[in-house]
Amino acid sequence: MLQAKDISYNKNAFNIIDAIDFECNQGELIGILGPNGAGKSSFLSILANEFHQKGNQVIFKNNEYKKWDSKELPKHKAKFSQNNNSDIPLKVFDVIMMGRYPYFDNNPSQDDEDAVLYSMKKTDTESLSNFEYNHLSGGEKQRVHLARVIAQLENRNSNKILFLDEPLNNLDVLHQHNFLKYIKEFTNRGNSALVVLHDLNLAAQFTDKILLLKKGKKVCFDSPINVLTQEIISDVYNYPCTLTTNPITNHPLIIFG
């Protein structure tokens, strides 16, 4: 579904991403993990066609991005960025409707309104519909932008992909888990998602595979049980940890310290 080979990225003579091969198959939820400065967000932006460097090639649904129709592509892929505009003088409903802009020119259809209502339900933002966006808390704004990208991909296309850069920032425990459950539901329908995360235990619980980065290099790319080992995590994060098994989910459980 998404293939990238020998991806590198340099900025100001600094090597941010160093020759990474990557593949995401249909229906996979892949976590991108690593310490600060590992290159997680940069790599995600390259895969999402936001950062470009000569020689890099990313294939999405058997086509390079440059071969896609620019009006059609947003109906197949969407990206949530960690740095969203915090000053938007619109009501919440209208901000979420921005995700439907690829579908209409002047006035939204009933399908567009239904997509917004669906995404609001999935992000617990229904009660905020008529609130001014600028009056919301940080966590509420985060959920509004998550709803926006969900609304963007609410269509009948198959094999869609979501790129999510630290989507759990500012969210409480309830909304973190509910959103990841939605993403799991999204991928269970044959779509795919790439998520930059900092919480290793949530990655262990929800992802199918983990790409672990350190200083722009791929450390490993495998199932959570093979990536989240005491030796690998202690080395990559330069901090001691203990590995056990979550007694409820049976996933790996990492305890630092």
From TrEMBL:
GO terms for molecular function: ATP binding; ATP hydrolysis activity. It holds the Pfam family ABC_tran. Keywords: ATP-binding, Nucleotide-binding, Translocase, Transport. Gene3D superfamilies: P-loop containing nucleotide triphosphate hydrolases. The keyword Nucleotide-binding applies. Residues 2-240 form the ABC transporter domain. Part of the ABC transporter complex HmuTUV involved in hemin import. Responsible for energy coupling to the transport system. This is Iron complex transport system ATP-binding protein. It comes from Myroides guanonis.
